[in-house]
Known about the structure:
Shape: elongated
Distance between the termini: 5 Å
Helix content: 25-40%
Radius of gyration: 12 Å
Amino acid sequence: MRLRVEFTTEPFDLDEAPAHALVAREVIEGAELDAVDVGPFGNTAEGGSDAVLTAVDALLRKALEAGATRISLQVNVVGEGDR
């Protein structure tokens, strides 16, 4: 099964990316995912279910440790494929 994750971390800072946003970006870019799109107001990535779920676990843990006070995420099934 293929999954797409979309997420944002807060609090926002338009002047400088906060530590939790940088950590979240590192987790997603370092995971075995494809179709990664990282932006200032939202981030998306796609991949096999195991890879996405592992990345989401790491993202939640590390972003909270780095100071995130809220993480909004959505996970969608986008097709069949790697399990």
